[in-house]
Amino acid sequence: MGLSKKDVQHIANLARLEVSDEQIDDYVEKLTQILDMVDALKEVDTSEVLPLAHPLHMSQPLRVDEPTEKNQRDLFQANTEHVEQGLYTVPKVIE
Amino acid sequence: MDRLTVSQLSAGLRSGKFSSEELTRQSLARIEAANPSLNAFITVTGEEALTAARAADRKLASGNAGPLTGIPLAHKDIFCTAGTLTTCGSRMLANFVSPYDATVVSKLADAGVVLVGKTNMDEFAMGSSNETSYFGPVRNPWEVSRSPGGSSGGSAAAVAAGLVPAATGTDTGGSIRQPAAFTGITGFKPTYGRVSRYGMVAFASSLDQAGTLTITAEDAALLMEAMAGFDARDSTSADQAVPPYSKMLDESLAGKTIGVPREYFDDGLDPGCERAIRDALDVFSDLGAKITEVELPHLALSVPTYYIVAPAECSSNLSRYDGIRFGYRHPDARDIGELYTRTRQEGFGAEVKRRIMTGTYVLSAGYYDAYYLQAQKVRRLIRDELMRCFEDVDIVAGPTTPTPAFGLGEKIDDPVQMYLNDIYTIAVNLAGTPGISIPCGFSGTLPVGLQLIGPHFGEATLLNFAHRYQQQTDWHTKTPPPVSNDGAGE
């Protein structure tokens, strides 16, 4: 099935990506090709099949709710220069 | 230049034939000479490597060394290494220094390996040719105009060219096995959950699995003994004992059965590859194994299934890259929304963005059932039919790839053609089973990979089959022509 430019802009917005006017035709074309390829799945009768999320049918293990990590804030914040007094800074959110 | 295996180097280190420092210096010198033409490494950790090598030599001298002590090794740049760049082949992480080590990294360090550097890869492991790397494509040492495969192409090229005896990789849809096939080496993808994913940058969490790129199956066994095992830090890690793989390699194949899927020999298979695969099956017959045909009728649907499941998981995993806490940040956004979109627009490459958008679409309101849920159901059909084969046969065998290494630039503008290249490897990831690719001949001048697939936790069986084959043949000893030092050079 084909995607329109509007569809692609909508998807990009959901994914917090920006698609420029020069790129939009390429995205429309290639995403349409990909969706055409995956459309083959629609032919398969899966009315009696359960979805598979984990190949080994393992369930999520639980552990005792005790702290296991020590506080390493300074180490973690070394990965950005946008830190003030131990807080991450971003452009103003509320006017 | 000689290219020794981990097992040979380990023996040489123990007998004092050479020191780890000498081996490490040799590896670093080879990297320096070959990297301008191969582009296999993103980061080389020379100083740290020499320090680790000297520590390994002290351990060897004291008699406390294990089989991997002092062996130079490279990690795919998807594994977090504390204090060293971990870029994942992306502009987004080009400046990222992990505060901690991946479990694979710390386990191999504990086993005494010497990390010489981090290898180039497709961006976030999304690609089959290494051309999506922000740091440029890796070149295939067999023919530098060709792709080494992907996404673990840097690790594969580095081992094939003898820069390191072994490297780690990750395999989400074939990213260890396909590059191993394209470069004439052994690529091993264990069962999903066998090796911890902690500290391995996530792409598609229900498919990602770490493994090895080595010259021989014996070396894969040695590395796996150190890498595998339960890790409380990975909630999908399998809580199962790790067998002594390297002690289980010599078992006889007499009376064992190999299933060959009819669907692996369709029109898309290169005749040179087919010839090499058929010859390899004859070798297994000579070793006493019985060859029988099996059926995987849904095999063709594995590519479409994968290209819903993997992008869906990728779009979710990659939502963490927002420019706030680490990684690339767009420098002059006016508001928070623009900060997110400009950061992601500039930090990700074209293929990663296509996959994020595909995944976002198939998970979005109104499309979830038709795409994602349907793909999860077909995933079960594909898994179940592969599992059914193992009721009758010990392993399944066929080609790793439909063709030998394709040219750089040949498929990069046509994503669907690129995706279809993974037709023989993807079902293994969907089913979560282990798989190995071993060199089994040539199509023209290019290496061909034979893929062996086992049941869940059948690692020892696969390594046994692969090792017996390598005892009988010498394809794994074939080395590419020496790499010239003067750029791309074709």
The helix-and-strand class of chain B reads alpha/beta
Overall form of chain A: flat
**Number of beta strands of chain A:** 2
CATH architecture type of the domain at 5-43 in chain A: Orthogonal Bundle
Query: What's the CATH first level of the domain at 5-43 in chain A?
Result: Mainly Alpha
| Assembly category | heterodimer
What does the radius of gyration of chain A come to?
Answer: 23 Å
Strand content of chain B: 5-15%
CATH architecture of the domain at 6-256 in chain B: Alpha-Beta Complex
The chain-level mean pLDDT of chain A equals: 92
Task: Please indicate the percent range of residues of chain A in DSSP E strands (runs of 2 or more).
Answer: under 5%
Q: In which range does the helix fraction of chain A lie?
A: 25-40%
SSE string of chain B, helix = H, strand = E? Answer: HHEHEHEHEHEEHEHEHHHHEHHEEH
> What is the first-to-last residue Cα distance of chain A?
43 Å
Shape of chain B: globular
- CATH homologous superfamily name of the domain at 6-256 in chain B? Amidase signature (AS) domain
Task: Please provide a written account of the structure.
The complex is a heterodimer of chains A (95) and B (490). Chain A is built from three helices and two strands; from the N terminus they run H-H-H-E-E. With 95 residues, chain A is mainly alpha-helical. Chain A has a domain at 5-43: Histone, subunit A (Orthogonal Bundle). Chain A has a two-stranded antiparallel ribbon with strand order 1-2. With 490 residues, chain B is an alpha/beta fold. Among the domains of chain B are: 6-256, Alpha-Beta Complex (Amidase signature (AS) enzymes), CATH 3.90.1300; 300-377, no CATH class. Helix content of chain B is 38%, strand content 12%. Chain B has helices spanning 6-14, 20-38, 46-62, 103-110, 153-160, 177-183, 217-227, 271-286, 302-317, 336-347, 350-363, 369-389, 415-420, 426-431, 459-472; strands at 41-44, 72-76, 114-119, 166-170, 186-189, 210-214, 257-261, 290-294, 395-399, 435-443, 446-453. Chain B is globular and about 65 Å long. The interface between A and B is large, with 49 and 71 residues.
